[in-house]
C-alpha cells in the first residue's frame, strides 16, 4: 500500500535568520479513496506543528563572502532538526526548498549565484531530500512572489477559497487583500474589483490551484513590492532628511518622532547628555507626533511621476482599490506596530481615531518615564519603545495617505452587501473593516511559506483530464500557460508500496496511537468471532451443541491445581460474556477508526498536532505556528470578482478545449470546472468517488475556520 502522508520542507532565508518549516498533507492517492463530496471541492489540507519549526541566526546573506561555510555552519542544524520528524523512508519523496528574501536581495548578483549554487550542492551531497531542480528549489524570490504566497496563505486560512457565500464582501467578492511590511520592503496583493480587473488585465498575475477533484481554480491577483518602504529603510531615509535639514544649525537635531527627552545617535544608539559623542550628531526627541507625521509624509513619494495611472507610492502603478469590497489584512509590522507598545490586544478591529490617540499619549511622555516603565523588561523592549513613535507615524502615513485605507472612526465606509448572518459575524471580528492587522488566524501565525507549500501540495493532485493543459503555478495573465509561468514544482505520481499505513505513526500523539491499538485489537477480535461462528456451524444440531457445551463447561469448572495460571470463573458462559462484552467495546473502536480514516480532522487540517490540548497553539511570536486550514468549501471556486463562472461540460471530460470568455483575462473569476457535471472522470470513479449533481450536493457544514480572525 502507498503511504498515508506526504511531507514538504521549506527554509525561509530572511535577513536576520533562517527558519525551517515542515508541512504534511494527506497523500492524494489515499485522500481520493475516502473523499466526501465536500472534500473533493477543497484544496489539500496541510498540517504543521510548533516543534516542526526551528530558527537560527544570522541569515544566509552573511555567508556572501564565504559560501563554502553556509552548509556545515548554517544549514546542517536545520537539516538535522527536520530528520528528527520525517520518517526515513519518506525522505526521498520529500521536497526541500530554500527561498531567500530581503537580505539576499541586497547582495551583488555574483554572491547570490555563488550562495544558491553552494546551498543546492550541499543539500544534494548531504541529504536525500527531493531536489530535482536547483533553480526552482533554491532561489532568491522577488517581493511580488513573496506577496503572492502571503495572499495564498491568508485566504487559505481565512476561508476565502472555501464557501464564497460565507465570505461575501459585496459585489460577489470573497477574497481578502494582503499587506506585509518588513524592515526593508513592503508588499501588497489583492484581487481588484471587476471594473479595475478588466481595465488593468495586463497588470494581474494568473494564479492556478487545483482542488482534490482534479479541476483547476484560477484567480487573477495584483501584487507588487515597494523596496525601501520597510520601517528600517524608511527610518534611515527620514534621519538623512533630518541631517540635511539641520546640517547648518549645529550637531543637535530635534526629532519629533522620538519620545521627549530621548537622545540618540543617527543610528539610534542612546547617548547621555553628560557624555555626548564628540563630532557625532545627536538626535533629541521632542515628542511632537503631529510634526512627526508631517515629516514622514514626503517619504511616500506621492510627488513622483506616475507613468501608468493610478499610482499609490513612489510612482508605482497599482489598480484602484475599492475598499467597499477589498478588505485587507496586514501582517508583520502592521501587527507589531499597532498591537505592540500601544496595546490594543483586545481590540476587535483597527480603529484609526483610537490608535492615533494612544500614539499621541505615548509619544508625548517624557522618555525617563517610559524607560522606567519598561526598565524591568528585556533590553529589546526598550529598543521597541524607542522606535515606536516613528513606526506608528510611518504606518499611519503608508496606510491612509499612501494606500488610501479609510480612517475608521473618522471617515464613513460604505456598508458591504452581505447577508445578515455574515454581517453580524463580521462585525464581531472587525471583519468588514477595510484594514485589519493580524498576527494569527484562529491561533495560526500567517506565513508566506504556507502559501508556497499549499501551491506545491495542490500540484500533486492528479488532474481530472489526462492532458494536463492547466498546470498549477502562476505567471502572466494570459490564456493557457504563459511563457513566464512558475510551476508549483510538483506533479502527481504514486509513492509505491514501500510502507503501509501502520508505518505512519511517527506524527501521531498518544490518543492517535491508542486509537490504532484499538483498531488492531478489533481486527483480531472479529477474526476470532468468524472462526467461532464457523466452528459452531458444524455443531449446529441441538444435541451436538449441548454435548459440546457440557464437555467444555465441565472442563472449565474443574478445580485448578495449586499454582495453575488462568481464570476458572464463569465457565463458557463467563467466557462468552467477556468476549462479547469486549466485542462491544472493540466495535466502537472500529467505528472510530472508520471516522478517522474518512475525516482525519486533527491529522489533516492545518493545526498543532501536539497531544496537549491546552497548548494546542503557541503564543510565542518567535516560532512558526501550526497552521489551520479551512475545512469548509465554496459553492464554486472563483477569483472573488463579480462575474459569472466560465463553464464548459466538454472541457471537463477532456473532449474539447474550454470556451474562453472575453472576460477571462480581466480578473473576473475563472473556475474551469462545472459543479453540475454528470459524472467524474474514469480515474476518479475507480477511486470510489461517486456521481454528483446539484441535487445531490450535500449541505455544507460551517467550517471551524469560518471565523475570519482570531485575535490573540
Automatic annotation (TrEMBL):
The active site is at residue 146. It holds the Pfam family GDA1_CD39. The chain crosses the membrane at residues 522-539. Residues 558-590, 607-636, 682-712 are annotated as: Disordered. Keywords: ATP-binding, Hydrolase, Membrane, Nucleotide-binding, Transmembrane, Transmembrane helix. It comes from Parachaetomium inaequale. One of its GO terms (biological process) is CTP metabolic process. Residues 607-616 have a biased composition (Acidic residues). One of its GO terms (cellular component) is membrane. Residues 618-636 have a biased composition (Low complexity). The keyword Glycoprotein does not apply. PROSITE patterns: GDA1_CD39_NTPASE. It comes from the Eukaryota. Belongs to the GDA1/CD39 NTPase family. ATP binds at residues 183-187. InterPro entries: GDA1_CD39_NTPase (IPR000407). One of its GO terms (molecular function) is ribonucleoside triphosphate phosphatase activity. This is Nucleoside phosphatase family-domain-containing protein.
Amino acid at each position: 500500500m502507498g503511504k498515508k502522508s506526504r511531507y514538504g520542507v521549506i527554509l525561509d532565508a530572511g535577513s536576520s535568520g533562517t527558519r525551517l518549516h515542515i508541512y504534511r498533507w494527506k497523500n492524494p492517492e489515499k485522500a481520493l479513496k475516502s473523499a466526501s463530496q465536500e472534500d473533493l471541492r477543497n484544496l489539500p489540507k496541510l498540517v504543521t506543528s510548533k516543534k516542526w519549526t526551528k530558527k537560527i541566526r544570522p541569515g544566509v546573506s552573511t555567508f556572501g563572502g564565504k559560501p563554502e561555510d553556509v552548509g556545515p555552519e548554517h544549514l546542517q542544524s536545520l537539516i538535522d532538526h527536520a530528520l528528527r520528524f520525517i520518517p526515513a523512508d519518506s525522505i526521498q519523496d520529500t521536497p526541500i526548498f530554500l527561498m531567500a528574501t530581503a537580505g539576499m536581495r541586497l547582495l551583488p548578483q555574483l554572491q547570490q549565484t555563488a550562495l544558491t549554487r553552494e546551498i543546492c550542492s550541499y543539500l544534494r551531497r548531504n541529504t536525500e531530500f527531493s531536489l530535482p531542480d536547483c533553480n526552482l528549489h533554491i532561489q532568491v524570490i522577488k517581493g511580488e512572489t513573496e506577496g503572492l504566497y502571503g495572499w495564498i496563505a491568508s485566504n487559505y486560512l481565512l476561508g476565502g477559497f472555501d464557501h464564497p457565500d460565507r465570505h461575501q464582501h459585496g459585489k460577489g467578492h470573497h477574497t481578502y487583500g494582503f499587506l506585509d511590511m518588513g524592515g526593508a520592503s513592503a508588499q501588497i496583493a489583492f484581487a481588484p474589483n471587476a471594473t479595475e480587473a478588466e481595465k488593468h488585465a495586463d497588470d494581474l498575475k494568473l494564479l492556478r490551484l487545483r482542488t482534490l477533484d482534479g479541476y483547476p481554480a484560477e484567480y487573477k491577483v495584483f501584487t507588487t513590492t515597494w523596496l525601501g518602504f520597510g520601517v528600517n529603510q524608511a527610518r534611515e531615509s527620514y534621519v538623512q532628511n533630518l541631517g540635511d535639514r539641520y546640517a547648518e544649525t549645529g550637531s543637535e537635531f530635534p526629532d519629533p518622532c522620538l519620545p521627549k527627552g530621548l537622545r540618540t545617535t543617527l543610528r539610534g544608539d542612546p547617548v547621555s547628555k553628560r557624555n555626548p559623542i564628540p563630532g557625532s550628531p545627536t538626535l533629541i526627541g521632542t515628542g511632537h507626533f503631529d510634526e512627526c507625521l508631517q515629516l514622514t509624509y514626503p517619504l511616500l513619494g506621492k510627488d513622483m511621476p506616475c507613468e501608468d495611472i493610478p499610482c499609490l507610492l513612489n510612482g508605482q502603478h497599482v489598480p484602484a482599490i475599492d475598499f467597499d469590497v477589498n478588505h485587507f489584512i496586514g501582517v508583520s509590522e502592521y501587527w507589531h506596530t499597532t498591537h505592540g507598545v500601544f496595546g490594543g490586544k483586545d481590540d476587535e478591529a483597527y480603529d484609526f481615531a483610537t490608535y492615533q490617540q494612544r500614539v499621541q499619549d505615548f509619544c508625548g511622555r517624557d522618555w525617563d518615564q517610559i524607560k522606567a516603565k519598561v526598565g524591568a523588561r528585556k533590553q529589546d523592549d526598550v529598543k521597541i519603545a524607542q522606535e515606536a513613535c516613528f513606526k506608528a507615524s510611518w504606518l499611519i502615513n503608508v496606510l491612509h495617505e499612501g494606500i488610501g485605507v479609510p480612517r475608521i472612526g473618522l471617515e464613513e465606509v460604505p456598508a458591504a452587501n452581505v447577508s445578515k448572518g455574515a454581517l453580524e459575524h463580521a462585525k464581531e471580528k472587525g471583519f468588514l473593516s477595510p484594514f485589519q492587522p493580524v498576527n494569527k488566524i484562529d491561533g495560526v501565525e500567517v506565513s508566506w511559506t504556507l502559501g508556497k507549500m499549499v501551491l506545491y501540495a495542490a500540484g500533486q493532485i492528479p488532474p481530472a483530464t489526462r492532458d494536463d493543459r492547466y498546470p498549477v503555478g502562476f505567471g502572466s495573465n494570459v490564456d493557457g500557460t504563459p511563457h513566464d509561468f512558475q510551476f508549483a514544482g510538483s506533479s502527481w505520481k504514486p509513492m509505491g508500496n514501500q510502507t503501509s499505513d501502520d508505518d505512519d505513526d511517527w506524527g501521531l500523539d498518544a490518543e492517535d496511537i491508542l486509537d490504532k491499538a484499538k483498531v488492531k485489537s478489533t481486527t483480531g477480535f472479529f477474526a476470532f468471532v468468524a472462526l467461532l461462528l464457523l466452528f459452531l456451524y458444524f455443531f449446529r444440531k441441538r444435541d451436538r451443541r449441548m454435548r459440546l457445551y457440557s464437555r467444555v463447561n465441565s472442563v472449565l469448572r474443574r478445580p485448578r491445581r495449586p499454582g495453575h495460571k488462568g481464570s476458572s470463573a464463569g465457565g463458557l458462559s463467563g467466557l462468552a460474556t467477556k468476549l462479547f462484552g469486549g466485542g462491544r467495546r472493540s466495535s466502537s473502536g472500529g467505528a472510530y477508526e472508520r471516522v478517522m480514516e474518512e475525516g482525519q480532522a486533527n491529522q489533516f487540517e492545518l493545526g498543532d498536532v501536539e497531544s496537549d490540548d491546552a497548548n494546542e497553539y503557541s503564543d510565542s511570536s518567535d516560532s512558526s505556528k501550526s497552521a489551520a486550514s479551512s475545512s469548509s468549501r465554496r459553492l464554486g471556486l472563483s477569483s472573488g470578482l463579480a462575474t459569472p463562472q466560465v463553464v464548459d461540460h466538454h472541457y471537463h471530460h477532456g473532449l474539447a478545449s474550454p470556451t474562453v470568455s472575453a472576460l477571462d483575462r480581466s480578473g473576473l473569476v475563472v473556475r474551469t470546472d462545472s459543479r453540475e457535471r454528470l459524472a467524474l472522470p474514469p480515474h476518479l470513479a475507480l477511486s470510489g468517488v461517486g456521481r454528483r449533481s446539484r441535487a445531490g450536493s450535500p449541505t455544507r457544514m460551517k467550517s471551524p475556520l469560518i471565523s475570519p480572525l482570531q485575535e490573540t
